[in-house]
Amino acid sequence: MSQVRNVKIIGTGKYLPKRKVYAHELDELIGVKEGWVEQKSGVGIRSFVENETASVMAAHAATEAMKTAGIHKEEIDCIVSVSGTMEQPIPCNAALVQKQLGLGESSIPCFDINSTCLSFVTGFDTISYLIHSGRYTNVLLVSSEIASVGLNWKAKENAILFGDGAAAAILAKTPDNEPSKVLAGHMETFSEGAHYTEIRGGGTKVHPNNSSADETDFLFDMNGKSIFKLSSRKLGAFMEKLLAASNCTIDEIDLVVPHQASGMAMRILRKKLGIAEAKFMNIIHNHGNTIASSIPMALHEAIVQNKIERGNKIMLLGTSAGLSIGGVVFEY
Amino acid sequence: MSQVRNVKIIGTGKYLPKRKVYAHELDELIGVKEGWVEQKSGVGIRSFVENETASVMAAHAATEAMKTAGIHKEEIDCIVSVSGTMEQPIPCNAALVQKQLGLGESSIPCFDINSTCLSFVTGFDTISYLIHSGRYTNVLLVSSEIASVGLNWKAKENAILFGDGAAAAILAKTPDNEPSKVLAGHMETFSEGAHYTEIRGGGTKVHPNNSSADETDFLFDMNGKSIFKLSSRKLGAFMEKLLAASNCTIDEIDLVVPHQASGMAMRILRKKLGIAEAKFMNIIHNHGNTIASSIPMALHEAIVQNKIERGNKIMLLGTSAGLSIGGVVFEY
Asked: Can you tell me which residues the record assigns to a coiled coil (chains A, B) (predicted)?
């Protein structure tokens, strides 16, 4: 059955915190020889928040996306936060974004969709059905992530990958006679790897007030080797299904916008897909892995750098904690 | 534009923790005169977890829902966690539920939808578009909440309302010649009230390791009076829109299944709607407010108690942190 949805991305935006953190600063912080951080991570510069909250960053990215789209904030009729982290446990992120945008009395519905690093992909895939059917007219999808507060600097290989930041997109129904459409989405979750990537503490299982928890329980933990093994084993079959549902071949894709997991992960992924560097969006060097913001931020950069034009076939693709693999193919 | 979706709830289930906590025990715990807790909250018995995790409870509720639906777990092709709390910050709840169900190698996609107490309503409303369009065949929606770990017993009026528990529903496409359908959904968020209901700490704004935070930052806080004022002001216009979209009157609704917020909140809501007690599902006395599990649990009870039959018009309705008001009208 065709999954085609007449949905168009009418605007995108991003926000990076002002504080830039260079690889050589981290070399010093974690006590490794100069050059190690950049060589290991592929990240030269990442941004870390000082006073910015996730909703403040989200509002900046959303405002840019609305400006590009040429719409006023009052024309948004649904706000979906698509982040892997939360600003506070209650209420949901999207409500805090609505407030930050000065829309506190607007009545615009607000909720969150979360599949960790794939949240934007899942949100885009899911919400496009509601736009296609006419339920919503202009939907704001926004990812805003503060990774820096939850990093374990003793787990060097993991901590050096991440950056903070937000990215937003406005989705709308495609006007008649325009090519924009979602061709297909596909997601697979293998929870045999549920604990390969995790923050164990901070939810109901290990509450922040749990006196037997220690600091590292509340910090990010990742078993890179296990993730690599499991995702490598599953990627081929996943891609076949995504491409079949999209009714196209990998060669017909004009640009792959992958999750900016790490320099190495992206090199391996690109080779597995067998595609040229020019068709693989890579912004990791000056952004780092910004969790769920990573894919919409790379998409935004592809648009502002004129790497894609209307009618191009774009693939969003990534892995996330879960372990999940997910992707969407769309004509921009 | 009609919002009708050919979607049927083919099975429901619930799970309550074994440990029962009676109102008189809480009278003693918080040092009030006997009878105060039950009189104030309308809750005689709530269940609190001992060793159960949220995913363990979710798996019990899901298993019952699949049994009622007459499907095997391998026939599920999407798992959506619709909870207001998380078991751990990473990965998402749904992946942990998949693992607990023994589906770790299944590839079934897993993600979370969160609008606090309205998560089930938002998930039902959103995902029904994907089922109607043929994207998914059998979707497991499951709410599983552990409120007890985050209660502030010094804020007596709030803490006495809550209970733990899980509830699940399986959604599928309606077979030809059957009446089941979603008529409409509607949601409004007024973030002017974003901080009326909150847990301030535990996310990226006040991280669990934040040394300047105190224990109460990680506990539930609610300003009941402000919520009441704001939601009372907004309810009338909200209901008009939900009923208009559903193309029916309140008198045509066979059963309203409200969020089980508190005994008093439900009494006031029922009177505002002007409907008889028999048409208003109330399970608060022996469940308490189980956050997002509350609505699907009350729906499950309405089904097993034979209060609704196929073809009946049902309204799910509630308020949540945000502040949001949300509802769905469907023919069961």
From this structure: none
The reply to whether A261 falls in a domain is yes
**What gap in Å lies between CA B197 and CA B208, rounded to an integer?**
19
Q: B202 and B225, same structural domain?
A: yes
How far apart are the C-alpha atoms of B121 and B111, rounded to whole Å? 16
- CB within 8 Å: B99 and A208: no
Domain count, chain B: 2
The tens digit of pLDDT for each residue in A51-109 reads 999 999 999 999 999 999 999 999 999 999 999 999 999 999 999 999 999 999 999 99
In a domain, A2, yes or no: no
If you measure CA to CA, which chain B residue comes closest to A113? B113
Q: Which residue of A has its CA nearest to B320?
A: A91
Torsion of CA B105, B111, B117, B123, to 10 degrees: -110
Scored b (16 or more CB within 10 A) or e, A252-284 reads ebbbbbbbbbbbbbbebbbeebebeeebbbbbb
Please tell me which of the candidates A85, A323, A326 has its beta carbon nearest to residue B203. Answer: A85
Together in a domain, B133 and B165: yes
Cβ pair B53:A87 closer than 8 A: no
Closest C-alpha to B27, from B14, B38, B16? B38
Share of chain B residues as helix, strand and coil, in percent rounded to the nearest 5: 40, 25, 35
Inter-chain contact B321–A218, Cβ cutoff 8 Å? Answer: no
Using the structure block, give the residue that is written with the tokens 């009729």: A77
Query: A224-246 and A263-273 are packed helices; what angle lies between their axes, rounded to 10 degrees?
Result: 40
Examine the domain organization and report whether B267 and B234 are in the same domain.
yes
Q: How far is it, in rounded angstroms, from Cα A178 to Cα A123? A: 23
Q: Please identify which residue in the block is written with the tokens 């083919």.
A: B10
Question: What is d(CA B164, CA B157) in angstroms, rounded to the nearest whole number?
Answer: 17
Report the CATH number at residue B146: 3.40.47.10
Q: Cβ(A276)–Cβ(A307) under 8 Å? A: no
Task: Tell me the chain B residues in contact with residue A187 when contact means C-beta distances shorter than 8 Å.
Answer: 109, 111
- B15 neighbors B8 (Cβ within 8 angstroms): no
Give the largest Cα separation in chain B, rounded: 62
* Chain A neighbors of B95, CB-CB under 8 A: 189, 191, 194, 321-324
Identify the pLDDT of residue B2.
82
Q: Which element (helix H / strand E) includes B160? A: none
Residue type, A88: Q
Residue B2 lies in a domain: no
Asked, for residue A276, whether it belongs to a domain, the answer is yes
pLDDT, one tens digit per residue, over A209-263 is 999 999 999 999 999 999 999 999 999 999 999 999 999 999 999 999 999 999 9
| Residue A202 CB-half CA count within 13 A | 33
ipTM: 0.97
Of A104, A200, A207, the CB nearest to B149: A207
pLDDT digits (tens, 9 = 90+) for A121-160: 999 999 999 999 999 999 999 999 999 999 999 999 999 9
> Would the CB atoms of A209 and B218 count as touching at under 8 Å?
yes
Tell whether the torsion through CA atoms of B23, B25, B28 and B34 is positive or negative: positive
Q: B interface mutation test: which of A141, A164, A191, A328 has the most B CBs within 10 A?
A: A191
Q: How many CA atoms lie within 13 A of A324 on its CB side?
A: 38
A165 and A278 housed in the same domain: no
Contacts of B94 in chain A (CB under 8 A): 115, 189
| Residues B208, B284 within the same domain | yes
Cis bond upstream, residue A273 (ω within 30): no
B154/B229 same-domain check:
no
Chain A residues with CB under 8 Å of B205 CB are 53-54, 87-88
